[in-house]
Amino acid sequence: MAKLVVQFVYSLAIDGKIKAWLYDNIGSRVDYDAPGNWCSTMLYSSDGSRLFCCGTSREGDSFLVEWNDLEGVIKRTYVGFQKKSIGVVQFDTTQNHFLAAGEENQIKFWDMDNVNMLTVSPTIEIQ
């Protein structure tokens, strides 16, 4: 028996909505509230098995979460952001094992399976 695989395209809007689309021009299939309800970026792990969302709320609070894309809920929230941010936090995954996010001229690192921050880089001076 063949396994049916349905692939969605996700979009995030500035109003804090995550939408999932199919390739049929009918419209979005789901409409979820994104963490922080504002500016976010979504990214799958390199093997495509895990979906992460990172961003900044309207109040400037940064967040990094693993998203359950089938149920539209947060699976885990990573801790370690300290300050208010004036822009969207940038992040990336590596080797299906680590997360890295930039905040306040530093790069912060997490193990994908542990919500506590592993380490932080020294402050980077921008000239």
Automatic annotation (TrEMBL):
<dbReference type="InterPro" id="IPR001680">
    <property type="entry name" value="WD40_rpt"/>
</dbReference>
<keyword id="KW-0853">WD repeat</keyword>
<feature type="repeat" description="WD">
    <location>
        <begin position="79"/>
        <end position="120"/>
    </location>
</feature>
<protein>
    <submittedName>
        <fullName>Topless-related protein 2-like</fullName>
    </submittedName>
</protein>
<dbReference type="InterPro" id="IPR036322">
    <property type="entry name" value="WD40_repeat_dom_sf"/>
</dbReference>
<dbReference type="InterPro" id="IPR027728">
    <property type="entry name" value="Topless_fam"/>
</dbReference>
<dbReference type="InterPro" id="IPR015943">
    <property type="entry name" value="WD40/YVTN_repeat-like_dom_sf"/>
</dbReference>
<dbReference type="GO" id="GO:0006355">
    <property type="term" value="P:regulation of DNA-templated transcription"/>
</dbReference>
